[in-house]
Amino acid sequence: MYLRRNRRKINGESYEYWTLVESVRTSQGPRQRLVAAVGKLPGMNEEIRVGWEHIGEILDGRAHQQDFLRAEPDPPQWAHVDASRLRVERLRSFGDVFLGLALWGRLKLDRFFDEVMEAGREEIAWSRIACILSLARFCAPSSELQIADFWYGKTALDDLVGVAAEKVNDDRLYRGLDELLPHKDGLFRHFQKVYGELFGTTFDLLLYDITSTYFEGQGKLNPQARHGYSRDGRPDCIQVCIALVVTPEGLPLAYEVFDGNRADVTTVEEIVECMRDKYGQERRTWVMDRGMVSEENLEMLRHTGASYLVGTPKSMLKRFERELLNEDFTHIEPGVEVKLCAAPDGSAETYVLCRSPQRSQKERAMRERQVTRLEKELARLQARCAATKNPLRDTFKVERRIGALLARYSRAAHLYEVNVEQTQDPPGKQRLALRVIRHEERRDWAELADGCYLLRTNLQGYSAEDLWRIYIGLTQIEDSFRISKHDLGLRPIFHQKQDRTQAHILVCFLALVMWRTLQHWMSASGLGQAPRKLLEEMAEIRSLDILLPTAAGPELRLRVVSRPENHLAILLQRLGLYLPNKPKSIQNVVEKIIPHPPIFRGNPYS
């Protein structure tokens, strides 16, 4: 007995179906008899074919004989099932954590933590807790209490990492943070090695920038938590500053945490020494924005043999007014024009003058809007001083209002000079008057400098276009900050102790590394660079238990993974990810799930 493929052509269209056929002896000789028309089998993969052939062998009264010349799937197991009492239990999120574990293995973090986190008296290995903390931050950022009370039990991680849900509590997760923090420097060296193996990354060019993240609470136990310049628009909250070093591909390499009131320019020497201590004395090129630039920092970089490409303060553009007036810029891409300029002091440095016509129009429109509003407010204040009823007579009060207006309209403030004068109008009555002086030469310079910025470097032999493209890589750090804060939940920080805060930032850093790795993985597979969208799609894949009541009494529990939709199956194929889709059968009368070995030692779904 065997399966036969049948093809028919009707009205120019081909149709295909399958039939179960047996061979019988007749007086005319061997003949084939149709047992059943199976129809079109979906996919007709190897497992379905073997299953139907095994049915034929059972009907034929023969035992299944395995072909030892090739690998075959295990034959199906048969039981009489009462379909009316079939039910589904234990629906769990599977796809997103499965993807996270794939990234964890691709970055070889499982091997790293197994090696550095030596086994002790703990019931659950700290390497597993580190994995759980990082996967939770990557898939669904939340607090340790939320992970223990809600998130972990709703995922298939208990099967995949071999840690039962009742073993995951907030105390164990907090202790996991404490155990994770001492391995921070080792992680940086590990990532340097892995990046070279996975992406062929070199580390002769590094991008550096700094951001801040604020706290909820007073943070009295954290001496680094201070009030300072907030990039989050929360000057009312204490904060810490996070300095991040990335490769030109956007891969996070290292970070440091500084006091919340630390000025950006004071962190450069410390971070350069930190990278030299961790990765050796190599000739590197540092790319930084203008907030890091000072003559002392540049001299320090030159003294250590490093190269630099940095932004400059807007005020330095005044030294290149003649170059701005010349229209000999090179158009390198829509909206960007550049040209090389020699250093005004005759040094070996090179300057790159960059201009964007679109940005020029935007800056001009923003300034003109503020000019209009500032003049309107000043005219209103002048009318209040000249009013016949209840005029403003307090000079200090008027000057304070002028200061508030100039601070509010900062883009237009430098174009005006406003003075408060005493007048006798009408005679015998003292009044205040505003004298507003508009500096047209400042306005002309502002219009000339709109959309322009200046780069400074000691690199030699590079074109203006090459230098601009290297500098624009700083957008990779800005994107990393945006991902960390919005997608990975870096802010706000609720931990009050310094070590716990440091550990929280380290877990966010690990999740950022996984995020960036997934971006490169997707890009290499032709799937764009939107990890959050892929994670949302993967979250639709669930694991579930199918309970099959049998005629013999016991119930069969089949733990399976849901079949992805066609578009998601294509994504998984492009990524080279294969879901475990072979059900695991467990006879379980009391309906208690038997623990399975973790994914590191075997897969309960296969």
Could you name the CATH homologous superfamily of the largest domain?
Answer: Transposase Inhibitor Protein From Tn5, Chain A, domain 1
Q: Write down the domain tally.
A: 4
- What is the residue-averaged pLDDT? 85
Low-confidence sequence ranges: 43-48, 63-71, 585-602
How widely separated are the two ends? 29 Å
Give the CATH architecture of the largest domain. Answer: Alpha-Beta Complex
The total of beta strands comes to: 18
Question: Could you please describe the fold and organization of this structure?
Answer:
By secondary structure, the chain is of the alpha+beta class. The protein has helices at 46-60, 95-106, 109-116, 126-139, 144-151, 157-160, 170-180, 184-199, 268-279, 295-303, 321-325, 357-385, 395-408, 410-413, 440-449, 464-471, 474-487, 498-524, 531-538, 566-575; strands at 2-10, 13-26, 29-39, 87-93, 205-214, 239-246, 252-259, 285-288, 307-311, 330-333, 336-342, 350-355, 416-424, 430-438, 452-457, 542-549, 555-561, 584-587. The protein contains 20 helices and 18 strands. The longest helix is centred in the middle third of the chain and has 29 residues, at 357-385. Mean pLDDT is 85; it is low at 43-48, 63-71 and 585-602.
